[in-house]
Specification:
CATH superfamily: ph1033 like domains
Strand order of the largest sheet: 2-5-4-3-1-6
CATH class: Alpha Beta
Distance between the termini: 19 Å
CATH architecture: Roll
Structural class: alpha+beta
Shape: globular
Strand content: 35-45%
Number of strands: 6
CATH topology: ph1033 like fold
Helix content: 25-40%
Number of domains: 1
Largest sheet: 6 strands, mixed
Order of helices and strands: EHHEHEEEHHEH
């Protein structure tokens, strides 16, 4: 199983919005970056991801699970764009801020630090374990 990071602006679609969707979850739609789309194509049902509040908040707030593999994005008729479906699994007891991540040498190579603009990113096993520990899991 792989791990990922999904970024969303909390005032557009935040953690609480995904939690409200329950087990049905939601499409991770609207991604218009080829690299991020390709990462979603690599995802499998059951993969886990961090839910990251971007623009405001700037913190990892929860864990999600991929519930449907890549399929056409319903927000466009352009067949180049695909998305996965995700559902909320659990919040982090202690959100992990971007400031904390950037200050932590163990996370210096994380895509969130090196490719900050990418909305869907891979997370290594070591990064996953470290952030879970920082987040109180």
């Amino acid at each position: 199983m792989a791990q990922w990071l999904f970024k969303s602006e909390p005032d557009v679609f935040g953690w609480d919005d995904l939690v409200a969707k329950g087990d049905t979850g939601e499409e991770w739609d609207g991604v218009r970056n080829y690299q991020a789309r390709n990462f979603m194509r690599d995802m499998a049902v059951g993969d886990r991801g961090f839910f990251y509040h971007s623009r405001s908040g700037l913190e990892i707030v929860g864990i999600v699970e991929v519930t449907a593999e890549a399929h056409p994005d319903s927000t466009t008729e352009d067949d180049r764009w695909e998305c996965v479906d995700v559902k909320a699994i659990k919040p982090l007891p202690q959100p992990v801020t971007l400031e904390t991540i950037k200050a932590d040498e163990a996370l210096s190579e994380m895509a969130l630090v090196r490719s900050a603009r990418l909305s869907v990113q891979p997370v290594t096993d070591a990064e996953w374990a470290h952030i879970c520990k920082l987040g109180g899991l």
